[in-house]
Amino acid sequence: MIEKNKEYILDIVGQGYEGEGIAKIDSYPIFIQGALTGEKVKILAIKANKNFGFGKLLEIIEPSEERVTPECENAKRCGGCSIQHMNYKNQLDFKFDRVKDCMHKIAGLTTDLVQYPIGMETPSRYRNKVQLPVGMVKGKIAIGFYATRSHNIIDINKCLIQDEIADKVAAITRSWMEKYKILPATTDGIFDPKGLVKHIMIRKGFKTNEVMVVLVTIKKTVPHINEFIANIRDNIDGIKSIVHNINSKDTNVVLGTDFRTIWGAEKITDYIDEFKFNISPVSFFQINPVQTEVLYSTALKYAALTGKETVFDAYCGTGTITLFLGQKAKKVYGVEIVPEAIENAIENAKENKIYNAEFLVGTAEEKIQELLDQGVEPDTIVVDPPRKGCDIKLLEAIAEAKPKNVVYISCDPSTLARDLKILTEKGFKVGKIQPVDMFPHTPHIECVVKLKRK
Ligand code: SAH
């Protein structure tokens, strides 16, 4: 046990799933954000639960050789990139250990199936989309990110995981608001109905360099909006679309339902490999374009298609992976719960001349079962669920379908391991597990897994 509000000097013996350092007093674990394995640190106990505690890092007495000084000047305050004090190799080692640990402890698999994570050559400025909250903080306009576990906005001039365009759009928005006395919709973290601007969103096509800027306000009328448009249009290279979105609700959801294109096109385009995609303000599109190609090509390699197969792509979003599968298979069925995503998927397939893809709106668990009931026999099933993993009904349907191969793409190693255990019990053998680092400087890790029917 530890005692709250007391200081301790501790040795860090491991890294938790969120990248926190772990120290132990007897067998009682204490989680310390910002500490690394092998370090001796001074902490303040901030929480003492029955089975574990939390400490605030006060001082690093003996630093690890893996520690780097983050390039980002906001690293200590920003809630965004929580492991940037690890050098990049150490970040990949940490993610490798994390995936192995889940596979061993949760799935009961041997860890030699886990491959070393594929990292980025240049792990900076990798994102193609950002949503920056705008607020009044201590009498000044702040545009940036939320501080760790809070709704306080930190004003950020430079975010090293975003494209430089995002820094520029934020600066233009800030000076436009200051010049015309346009107020943010929050003041010191509290919703302010007298204010106006809530968020600014920026998307950029990685291969096309086309830029979309979305101004989110809580009211329809925006004074001096033409000056905003002119400043963006004249100063942002590649600007193709400026959209005004109205969201009057005081919730965490960024975009409202009312969109107006106030300059240029309604959508921008981008390519993944040679496939072209239209991107609207609401489209789901992987945020790290360099690693998306790595992820999808790994999935495709694991699917090992010859051109004769029938393939199911569950959780297909806007049909990105579906098109790659379609190009290599006889027939592919994409299933997705969001109707708008399916509309995009159908458009994307047409635009890219993929004629053997069929898309179904509904839950993967229901629609896949329906396809099986209609007598469709899949050779390969690809799943790419959200963090909570697959519904048990879907795993049962996969077992009933008896495909030769299953490819599981996952953004959460814990739920992945849980589902792999179930699939193993239902007659599949897990092959390679390939982590891909889609989110450098954060603890997140994506995995692609190949399974074969026993
Ligand atoms: N494969 C896509 C999208 C993956 S994100 C890509 O790589 O771009 C996961 C998707 O699953 C989201 O589009 C989400 O809307 C969808 N989804 C969530 N729950 C679902 C369910 N029960 N059935 C089908 N789709 C679901």
TrEMBL record:
**Signal peptide: which range, if any?**
none
Q: Which residues form the TRAM domain?
A: 1-59
Keyword annotations for this protein, in alphabetical order, are: Methyltransferase, S-adenosyl-L-methionine, Transferase
Q: What is this protein called?
A: 23S rRNA m(5)U-1939 methyltransferase
Q: Which organism is it from?
A: Clostridium gasigenes
Note whether tRNA-binding occurs among the keywords.
no
Q: Does S-adenosyl-L-methionine appear among the keywords?
A: yes
The lineage's top-level taxon is Bacteria
